[in-house]
Design a protein that fits this description.
CATH class of the largest domain: Mainly Beta
Order of helices and strands: HHEEEEEEEEEEEEEEEEEEEEEEE
Shape: elongated
Largest sheet: 16 strands, antiparallel, barrel
CATH topology of the largest domain: Porin
Number of domains: 2
CATH architecture of the largest domain: Beta Barrel
Strand content: over 45%
Structural class: mainly beta
Length: 443
């Protein structure tokens, strides 16, 4: 660009000198014609140089804009980045977790499930199992809009079906969360609004303590802040009647279906939840309510309104210590308990629905001993009343004693002793003990 400017200046100066040179009378007309032509040519050259300079500036701007749109930049959240050419912030995270399990007196599989303990004395033999099914992948995005950030959360693990231990130990990837929010509105699949996820005890066992509310499902939710400490939320969520009859457990969406294998279930209305959370420096408290309609699988039978209430919270009561707990009581809310499959209601021979009264609760105390060591102990219990036969599940209990060691960032070794028991309505009972260790690497 500087060379173009210098050349233009030189040509202009030459033209000025020639125009000032003395002219001979005989040749004055011819010289004036030559000067006029020269000035015209110089003007055209100057115009071309201006055009070239303008194109050079535009090209430089295009190069800079292309460079900016092609370079990955960091986002606001740790570990996130901005998608080139957009304002969308992306965060990819998850973990690899290997579990090593030894059951002392009854095999419980990949999860410790106290309601599956046999009360007849069968299966009382030790078992070993190792798996990596809890390993998890998570993708989050945030895009600025006129309504505020549009956020998405997609997450899955490998606790789906399929696979075997003989050849490849393959297991199916499954959706845990597929959730989108903008403002106070959320839609997709996520933790139930009724679930106390903010105060959920952390254990090495994937199932966790008995008696906890645990469910993910499709829903439409709205959350509104009342002030800096208090927020309220309401939701309409997927309904699913999980009960039993004289033939045993049943669930509305299993079996049957049309010629295409599609079964939409028999539910007639969504489950409704409402919750309020109060947060402060010491921790939080959550109060939640649930309403359901359990329609009869028999068109001639009567349905029943089911309900539940839950209170949960966590608090830092001393240095390095934390207490968390959750308690649920209701009629016809068994599906919302981690141990409550088939415990919503009993359907009698005429098709009438009789809701089952349920109670669940769990509490955990966790202590950070050093920067790298932490210990925790948790107790959980669930009770189901309104039994019909002696073999109906009455009570389950668990105790988890856990040790966590994190020698470096993102790496945690764990060891846990688990005790669980089952008691039936007729008084039959049995228990099981498990030792579980793990290695977890977060990314």
């Amino acid at each position: 660009m500087k060379n173009h400017i210098a050349s233009g200046a030189a040509l202009t100066a030459m033209a000025l000198v020639l125009s000032l040179a003395p002219m001979q009378p005989a040749h004055a007309g011819a010289i004036e014609d030559e000067l006029r032509l020269m000035r015209q040519q110089m003007a055209e050259m100057a115009k071309r140089m201006e055009e070239l300079e303008g194109r050079q500036v535009e090209t430089q701007q295009e190069v800079e804009e292309t460079r900016e749109s092609a370079v990955i930049t960091s986002g606001k959240s740790p570990g996130s980045f901005i998608l080139p050419g957009s304002g969308t912030e992306i965060e990819i995270s998850g973990y690899i977790k290997a579990d090593f399990i030894y059951d002392f007196n009854e095999g419980q599989g990949d999860l410790f499930v106290p309601e599956s303990i046999s009360t007849s004395g069968g299966g009382d033999e030790n078992r070993f199992r190792a798996h990596a099914r809890q390993s998890r992948l998570r993708i989050k995005t945030s895009t600025p809009t006129a309504w505020g950030p549009l956020k998405t959360h997609f997450e899955g693990d490998f606790f789906g079906g399929g696979g075997n231990q003989v050849i490849s130990n393959s297991t199916t990837f499954r959706i845990r969360h597929a959730w989108a929010t903008i403002g106070g509105l959320g839609a997709g699949q996520y933790w139930s609004n009724f679930m106390p996820i903010e105060s959920y005890p952390g254990t090495i066992d994937f199932n966790g303590p008995a008696g906890l509310t645990f469910i993910r499902q499709a829903q439409l939710r709205y959350t509104a802040p009342v002030n800096d400490n208090l927020s309220i939320s309401v939701s309409l969520e997927n309904s699913e009647f999980s009960g039993r009859n004289a033939g045993g457990l049943f669930s509305e969406s299993t079996g049957g279906g049309n010629s295409f294998g599609v079964n939409a279930g028999l539910d007639q209305a969504p489950d409704f939840t409402a919750a309020a959370i109060y947060r402060d420096d010491w921790g939080l408290v959550k109060l939640a309510g649930l309403g359901r309609y359990l329609g009869s699988p028999n068109d001639q039978g009567d349905g029943e309104i089911a309900w539940g209430v839950s209170i949960s919270g966590n608090a830092k009561l001393w240095p390095g210590g934390k207490v968390m707990g959750a308690f649920l009581y209701g009629d016809g809310v068994g599906r919302y308990l981690v141990n409550g499959v088939g415990q919503d209601a009993f359907v009698d021979a005429s098709g009438d629905v009789h809701a089952i009264e349920a109670f669940g609760g769990a509490i955990q105390v966790r202590q950070q001993l050093t920067d790298t060591f932490a210990v925790a102990i948790a107790y959980g219990r669930a009770e189901f009343n309104d039994s019909r036969v002696g073999s109906d599940l009455d009570t389950v209990q668990t105790i988890h004693g856990s040790l966590f060691w994190s020698p470096v960032e993102r790496l945690t070794f764990g060891a846990e002793v688990i005790w669980g028991s089952r008691e039936d309505a007729n008084g039959s009972d049995d228990d099981a003990i498990r030792l579980q260790t793990s290695v977890q690497v977060n990314f």
